[in-house]
């Protein structure tokens, strides 16, 4: 570790030496940001989370480790740590305020990163317009992956999509409560990226307002147009913009591996998906997992399935299935195609609701399932 980085890291991890590998800087960063979480893994290893989201699970591995004491989850206390470098091992001593302490003796500190699909995952943390918020969330976790793990963890397609987050009318569909009330700024790259999507959709009406926004972005008029562009995205006449972004995210995500929780649990999840399919087919729906639809009394009824998955490591043993129900009257459709989540858009003759169904499992592979609960009606 170079001297400049060493001095910075020592502020948060006293005991570091020049001989310590650079990977210890990540441990110091975790301590600096006060986000230390440690749990026991396999084969005598312990893990500390680095970046854990639906697109990536990355963590430090304390290899060949032995812990005295234990990490206490949910303890609100200032965590401090110190490192001792011994001849053939390291010792990390941790204080969780004055309430808990533990030590880990380990042979080596390693770093692992696993990249996963994320396009079929949902979190309903902010109510209303959930269809748009899911897209902002997915690009947000890709941005975190890019920033914390490096551009090599992102594909060309993902990097081409990231500038969309710099288009304020889109980014303002916040997905997490702590973004409430924030004002987002548009950049030239963000405007250009979104304009390309609009042109691909052939949406000349949206393009016209967007070009007016481009020429007045720093004025009061620009703010009014920004709000208008934001609201226009949720009108059904601009649904192709939504569908193109959704499809591009799906394709960018699909190149990664799916999460696996072991054969027994993977089988339970597959059985549940098959049961969902059979339930819809029995009730007259066509399609296959994750999208089902049927026509009934001049109305298109559809359901798009999304899932809330635990982390492969450090994950809770619970799995949630979301039912995104959508109803759209045929009035005025004139043979136009129906889209995923069409009922979530504003306008007469459109209705939507979300249900959630939880499944949990035990170490022996047994499962417990709860009936669907209304998330939003």
TrEMBL record:
It holds the Pfam family DUF3878. It comes from the Bacteria. This is DUF3878 family protein. It comes from Candidatus Eubacterium avistercoris. The lineage of its organism: Bacteria, Bacillati, Bacillota, Clostridia, Eubacteriales.
């Amino acid at each position: 570790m170079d001297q400049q980085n060493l001095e910075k890291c020592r502020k948060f991890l006293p005991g570091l030496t020049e001989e310590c590998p650079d990977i210890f800087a990540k441990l110091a960063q975790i301590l600096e940001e006060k986000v230390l979480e440690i749990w026991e893994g396999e084969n005598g290893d312990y893990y500390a989370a680095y970046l854990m989201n639906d697109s990536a699970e990355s963590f430090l591995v304390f290899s060949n480790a032995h812990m005295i004491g234990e990490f206490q989850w949910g303890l609100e206390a200032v965590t401090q740590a110190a490192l001792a470098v011994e001849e053939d091992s390291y010792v990390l001593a941790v204080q969780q305020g004055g309430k808990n302490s533990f030590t880990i003796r380990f042979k080596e500190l390693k770093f692992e990163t696993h990249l996963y699909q994320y396009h079929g995952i949902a979190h309903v943390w902010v109510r209303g317009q959930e269809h748009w918020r899911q897209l902002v969330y997915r690009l947000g976790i890709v941005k975190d992956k890019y920033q914390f793990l490096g551009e090599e963890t992102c594909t060309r397609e993902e990097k081409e999509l990231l500038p969309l987050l710099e288009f304020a009318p889109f980014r303002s569909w916040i997905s997490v409560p702590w973004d409430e009330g924030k004002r987002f700024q548009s950049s030239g790259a963000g405007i250009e990226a979104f304009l390309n999507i609009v042109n691909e959709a052939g949406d000349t009406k949206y393009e016209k307002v967007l070009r007016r926004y481009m020429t007045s972005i720093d004025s009061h008029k620009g703010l009014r147009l920004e709000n208008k562009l934001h609201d226009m995205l949720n009108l059904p006449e601009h649904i192709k913009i939504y569908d193109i972004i959704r499809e591009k995210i799906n394709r960018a995500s699909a190149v990664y591996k799916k999460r696996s929780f072991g054969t027994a649990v993977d089988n339970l999840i597959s059985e549940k998906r098959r049961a969902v399919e059979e339930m819809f087919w029995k009730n007259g729906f066509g399609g296959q997992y994750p999208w089902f639809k049927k026509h009934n009394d001049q109305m298109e009824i559809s359901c798009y399935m999304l899932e809330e998955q635990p982390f492969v490591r450090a994950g809770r043993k619970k799995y949630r299935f979301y039912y995104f129900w959508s109803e759209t009257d045929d009035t005025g459709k004139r043979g136009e195609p129906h889209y995923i989540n069409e009922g979530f858009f504003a306008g007469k003759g459109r209705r939507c609701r979300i249900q959630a169904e939880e499944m949990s499992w035990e170490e022996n592979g047994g499962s417990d399932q709860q009936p669907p609960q209304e998330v939003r009606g």
